[in-house]
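Incident log, structure service

09:12 report received: a user says their structure output differs between two submissions of the same chain.
09:20 pulled the input from the user's history:
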Amino acid sequence: MSDERLVGIVLVSHSAEVASSVAALSKGLAGGGSAVPVAAAGGTESGGLGTSAELIAAAAAAVDRGAGVAVLTDLGSAVLTVKALLAEGDELPEQTRLVDAPFVEGAVAAVVTAATGADLAAVESAATEAFTYRKV
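09:34 re-ran on a clean worker, output below:
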């Protein structure tokens, strides 16, 4: 299954620990999602809180399998950093998309959907749909 063209998922957080934990949770809950390329891009290169364009670009390159890359972010400057990378045009793989979705629920939905072999539009749709999940 590792040879399949699966959508890659990048999880961008201001915290390396948060990004890594959400990646592990998403892959664990997805069951068959272990084949889905998921990368955490959290914090700064020095290990502090913040976002790093370099870490995001490296994570996107690492998960690119030719089917597109979905990027989910936690907070404001993470969104701005990804938007800046997308605007530059050559820092991220082709078909990289910033997905407007809740970070945890959206990540799980994205990984579960990507595990089915769905295309980038379907992965984005599933993650975005997580906005409607009710807890009570």
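09:41 both user submissions now match this output. Likely a transient worker issue. Closing.
09:42 reviewer note: The mean pLDDT is 93. The radius of gyration is 13 Å.
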